[in-house]
Amino acid sequence: MTTLDRLRATAFSWKSAVVGSGGVFLRDIGHGLLEVGHNSLALLGLSVIGIALLAGGRTDLRHALEGHALSWLQARHEARQPVTLDVVDLSEPDAIARATATDPKELSRSQAAVAGWLARRYRVAPEPVSRLVQEAWRVGELTNLDPTLILAVMAVESSFNPFAQSPVGAQGLMQVMTKVHNDKYEAFGGRHAAFDPVTNLRVGVQVLKECIARAGSLEDGLRYYVGAANIDDGGYVMKVLIEQNILRQQAGLKPLPLPVRRQAPVAEAASDDGPATATSAPAGVLDPIARPAAEPPAPAQKIALLR
Asked: Alpha carbon 20 to chain centroid distance?
């Protein structure tokens, strides 16, 4: 026998030994698992029989087990069912009628330019601003007021927040004192209409028009509007007029000349004939709130907003 034959015989014998040992090992494991499973099942069966005997002897325990089993079965059944939610129908097709919005494409070129600038400047949606710009042009034509002035007042007063309210009760876009001008809201259904943007704009324009008529000039009318007829307006008039000129430029209109800022009234020097007196309002200017002649002078009353 050659060396190669001997190596082949040795390898074959090793292979047979390994295969035989592995088969014995696997058979032993299988028998062991079978024994363990058999014993476990026998123990489980004995436990079930014991529990059944115990439950059979105790009615309360049997009922408790039955209840738990029924609950488990119901939970499993519900888990398999598709989830269905009761959805309340909140749709309202006519709600669009309440929306204060206009497509900017429906505006003229100058109006669209103003609306676009306001939307960017005050970070508001272009559609509601377009509606307000459109309304300002229409109301301005009816009242002979520059629409950019109306929009400038809104910008300075509320930054186009239709729900704005000041500490003294001025409300809405143009910060009209609702309590003072409650009668003007009656034509629109009541004082809560102050929070309707278009209504607030229209009432605010009425108040502004009255202030200008009483004061005799635009600048003094704006001071009356803000409640600073006889005191320093804190730069309010200048803010509004600068804002107006910006809007006029956006609309392609020529800016208006700005007035010299009026100084706050100061007390006049006392004369030999009597005590010093405060500088009074221009002759012929009516006080926004009428008072009896016998009453002493009082601070200017609020027309639209006290600042």
From this structure: 81
